[in-house]
Amino acid sequence: MPPGGWYHPGVVKAVSFFKRKAGMAVDDFQTYWRRRHPDAVLRLPGIRRYVQSHTRPAAYARGEPIYDGIAELWFEDTRAMHALRGTPAMAAVEADEAVFIDRATMRLLLTEEHVIKDGPAAPGAAKNVEFVNRKPSMAVEDFQRYWREIHGPLAATIPVIRRYVQSHVRPFAYERGRAPVYDGLAITWFDDTAAMRASAATAEYARTRADEPNFIAAGAAPFIITTEHAIVP
Fold first, then answer.
1. Domains in the chain: boundaries
2. Can you tell me the distance from the alpha carbon of 62 to that of 53, in angstroms, rounded to the nearest whole number?
3. How does pLDDT run across 59-81, given as a tens digit for each residue?
4. What is the number of other CB atoms lying within 10 angstroms of the CB of residue 91?
5. Burial of 41 (0-12, 13-18, 19+ CB in 10 A)
């Protein structure tokens, strides 16, 4: 996405992540998702932007990644999303998902984007998606503020990061004692995976990692390295 690209404060971004249907080859899954599934999704009214990010093939050489990819859908507001409930168009999307997705693995987060570093990401760039959970003792508001205002600018100093977006789960997900599976996603773009690996040797990377225990739950955060396909740019 170019600098100053598609971003409007207040717009809701729905992020879903999932595994492919059991027994389905990765190539078949990715081909169906990219070439066939958009036919159903694009019939949904109110979509402002639609991006698929497919887990890179190299990940499968080391075993099964936690997810085979994420789908990001932007809407003007939550009313536009709620209007889809029970519609024939939404039913068609869900029926088509069952063709290639293991729906038991599928999760959805409604988020708000915060663009921390707004730079260009070339087609085919490595897009790292990290699934973030806050420290159990930290209030959601404090977590989001720290992540956005303190940690975000720190991570943005890593020189090889081309673009950096935080997707924060919207507050209503925590109402009535509920807890989303993740508190947000940290999404960073690099020229390629070699640039990602090189970043780990920098002082900026070391400072960023050292700050994580201040707001992120202990343990390694799950992640996938993906290639982005903008269906509706």
1. 12-232
2. 19
3. 999 999 999 999 999 999 999 99
4. 12
5. buried
